[in-house]
Amino acid sequence: MTAPDTPPAAPRTAKGSGVLRGNADFRRYWLSTTLSTFGSQLSLLAFPLLVLSIGGSAAQAGTVATCSLVTRTLLRLPAGHLADRLDRRLIMVGCDLVRLVALVSIPVVAGLGHLGQPQLLLVAAVEGAASALFAPAATIAVRDVVPERDLTEALSRSQAAVASSSLIGPFVGGWLFTVDPILPFAVDAGSYGVSALLLLRIASRPAPEGAGAGRDNRLTAGLRWLTGQRALLAALFFAAGINVVSAAAQTTMVVSLRQSGAGGTAIGAVMACAGVGALLGAAAAARLIKAIPASRLFLLIGTVWALGLAVFSTTSDPWTIGPVLVVVVFFSPPAGIVVARAVLVLAPRDLLGRVSTATGLLMAGLASLGPVLAGLFVDSLGAGSTWLALAGTAAAVTVLSSVPLLRETALDMKTDGDGDADGDGDGDDSGGTAAHPGPASPQRAADGPAGLVRAPGEKTGGP
Prior knowledge:
Layout: H1 19-22, H2 24-53, H3 58-74, H4 76-85, H5 88-111, H6 117-145, H7 151-179, H8 183-200, H9 221-226, H10 230-259, H11 264-291, H12 294-312, H13 318-330, H14 333-346, H15 352-367, H16 370-381, H17 383-402, H18 442-447
C-alpha cells in the first residue's frame, strides 16, 4: 500500500495496449491538446478574413498575426520559468480559460455592433500570451502522465494530432467563416472550454521537487544547461537547420508555382501535401526511431531533404512536386520526436520548462529567417537556383551535425517501449537505470541524468 505522503507514480500502460488505450490520463491530455490545437487552426485563417471583412486593409490583417507572434516570442523564456515553478496542469487550465474568454469576446462585441481592429489586436495579444504560457507546461505535462518507456509513442501520437489539425483546421475554419464570420471563433472558444475540463480530470501529479542548494532559478538556466550538451546541441543544430530550409522552401514553393502559372487551387493542393507527409511521418515515427539509430536517422532525413529540394529545381509541375513533397516531409517528424524525447528524459526535472522553451527559441528563431532569405534569393537568383541553394544548405547541415554523432548512442531509444526497462521483471521503469534514467529526483537533478556524453565542467544531459 502506498504511503499517504508518497506522490502517485505516472500511470502504467496496460501490457499489449497502446498508450492512448491503456493510459487514461494521457488520453485526457492528448484529447485536450488536440482540441486546443484544432481550435487554434480554425481561427488561424479566420482572423485575417475577419479583419478584411470589417473593412481592414491587408496590412492590418497581417498586424493581427504579427501581434500574436511577437507576444509569444517575448514570453517564451518567462513561460518556461513559470512551468518549472508552478503546477503545470493548473497553468494549462488557466491558459485555456483565458483563451476561452478572449475568443468569446469576439462574438459578444460583434453582437453589440462594436467589433473593430483594436478589439481583434487585443484578442490576438491575449491569446498569444496564453498560448506562450501553455506551451512549455504542456511539454512537461506529458512527462508527468507518461512513463519513460512510452514517451516515443506518446510524442508520435501528439505529432500526428498536430499534423492532422494543421491539415484539416484551416479548411474547416474557412468553411465555418463562409457560414458565419463569427462562427470559427465561437467554435475555437468552445474547444478551449472542453480542453480545460479534460485537463481538470487528470489524476496524475508530478513528484514534488526539493529546493536544493544547487537549484538554478535563473531565467536563462535552460540556455545555460544546453551549452554543455554536445550531442543534443548537434541534434538541435540539425533540427534548426532543417527548419530554416523548410520555412524558406514554403515561400519558394508558393512563388515558384505562381511564376510558372499555377492557380491558387493547385498551389493549395501542393501545400496540403506537406500536411499529408507530416501526418504519415508522425504515424510511422515510433517504428523509425526504434529501428534506426538517431545519427543515421538524421543522415537519412537530411539526404531526403537535399535530394527532394534538388528535384524541385528541375520542375514546376504540381503533379511531380506534390508526391515528392509528401516523401520529403514524411521523414521530418521523427527528428523532432528524437529531440523532444531527449529533452524530456535527460534534462533535470527542475529545468524542463526552461530547457524546452530554450530549445524552441533556438529552432524557431532561426526558422523565422527562412522566408526573408528565400524571397531575397528568388528575386536575385531565380527559383531554380534558390532550390539548389536550399538543397546544398540541407546537405551541409546534415554533414556538420550528423557525422559527429555517428559514434554516439546517447540520443538513441534504448529500452523505450520494450516493457521492462529496469530489468526487475515488473515492467516498471520509474526508478531508471544508468543507461536509461527515470524521472529525476532532486539528487539526480543535481548530478545530471545519465545518457549523454559529459562535457568538460558541465552536467550531463540532453522536439
